[in-house]
Amino acid sequence: MKKTVLFLTVFCMLFAGCANKAGNDPAPSPNAGTEATEKSTDTPTHQEANPTATPEGAADGLLSRMYIDIIKSGDYFMKAKVEGETGINEFAVSVSPDSTAMETETDGVLYTVLIREGVTYMINHDSQMIITSSAEVANSASNMAGDALSTEGLIFEAKGNGSFSGESLQYEEYKTTAGDTTMRFFFRQNALVGIESVSDGATTTYVIEEISAGHRSNMHVIPESYQLLDMAALGG
């Protein structure tokens, strides 16, 4: 996930350098056959959670099991603040069976990165511009999205109490089968408030605002009225 946040940060900077290259004609629909409207303000409807699978090695009664199952489902929404090597970033991610959407706000401007069928759409809702990436960038971004809070191969290790954001909280700890990643799920009064992931010596902390089953459909919309900038055609 730290790579994803870094990608979003670089992407926001990229818009500033590319906006002046664009023409004034509106873009054709970036994804033919996909219903597209401008940024929606409708309240999204979540799908009902169905946490049926049990994480490998986990025992019954673990508070973290439901959240691991939600992430494994590949259809969920998460809003969090991430503290890691790239600093502190607030973001939202919506994962559906066919696409991944990430939102962040920088200097009051809302940006969306939508990854669908190997194509990356980088959307600036303030300037109403869409940058469609080259194949190389799209593949890189897709790999980053796949790394987001991966729960595959987690084995339950222990319960305990530890420090998280200045509080002493209950946690449930997992390790991957390869042993290269440790994840702790922190709870306050049985509610998930944070996840700490240690991988390759780097620690990333997620302060969870919301995590729930079902994606936010309005985050997966490609606004057809926005201007399209083809980076590949411009040598980018």
Q: What count of helical segments does DSSP give?
A: 3
Record field, number of beta strands: 12
Strand fraction equals 35-45%
Q: Report helical residue fraction.
A: 10-25%
Q: The biggest beta sheet, please?
A: 12 strands, mixed
Brief characterization of the structure:
By secondary structure, the chain is α+β, with helices and mostly antiparallel strands. The protein has 3 helices and 12 strands.
Give structural notes.
The chain is an alpha+beta fold and 236 residues long. Helix content is 16%, strand content 42%. The protein has helices at 2-18, 65-72, 135-146, and strands at 76-84, 87-95, 99-106, 109-116, 119-124, 129-132, 154-164, 167-176, 181-188, 191-199, 202-213, 227-230. A twelve-stranded mixed sheet has the order 7-8-9-10-11-1-2-3-4-5-6-12. The longest helix is centred in the N-terminal third of the chain and has 17 residues, at 2-18.
Question: Any key phrases for this structure?
Answer:
alpha+beta, 12-stranded mixed sheet, elongated, disordered N terminus
Helices and strands, with pairings:
Elements: H1 2-18, H2 65-72, E1 76-84, E2 87-95, E3 99-106, E4 109-116, E5 119-124, E6 129-132, H3 135-146, E7 154-164, E8 167-176, E9 181-188, E10 191-199, E11 202-213, E12 227-230
Parallel strand pairs: 6-12
Antiparallel strand pairs: 1-2, 1-11, 2-3, 3-4, 4-5, 5-6, 7-8, 8-9, 9-10, 10-11
